[in-house]
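Annotated sample (chain length 165).
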Amino acid sequence: MNDPRPLWAARPCGRYGLRRARLPSEDAIRVVEIAAAYILVGLFAVGVLDLLAQIADAALVSIRSGGRVGITDPNVVVGFIDTALLLFIIVEIYQTVVAYTREESVVRIVIIAGIIAVSRKIISFRPGETTTTEDLLFAGSFALLLLVLVLALYVLRTTEGNPPE
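Output written by the structure step:
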């Protein structure tokens, strides 16, 4: 059966038959959300290929140099970890888009993405030859931010399923 009413007309929906207007813009935004999800999948695939290329390149450099540089260099390993954490952030953003499209809560996903992003900054942080006050402030602020995010995730997980009275 075809409904003769236009898409933007109010239609019965929900448990109590309440009416809700469905606008053409809602359909358009759904298409954009799905396109964003596919773009993130593409970015993730490109990132994985890039990480594999970095590892292969570092291994070749290591073989050519007799193991003195390349894959055994701590800075190269930190670069691998940095790229891997960036890929995890892309996955979390993808999950946020999917959850938002399904009209689910995205708070937990955003907090996890924040924890990964801050961890990435902390791991890739390299102070100069001498530690300055600015370096200490930078490290301390990221440590505090990480602590707050972990605490927020803990509170969210312990209160999930327990609605306020």
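Annotation: The helical segments are 24-64, 74-101, 107-124, 133-159.
Annotation: The beta strands are 10-13, 18-21.
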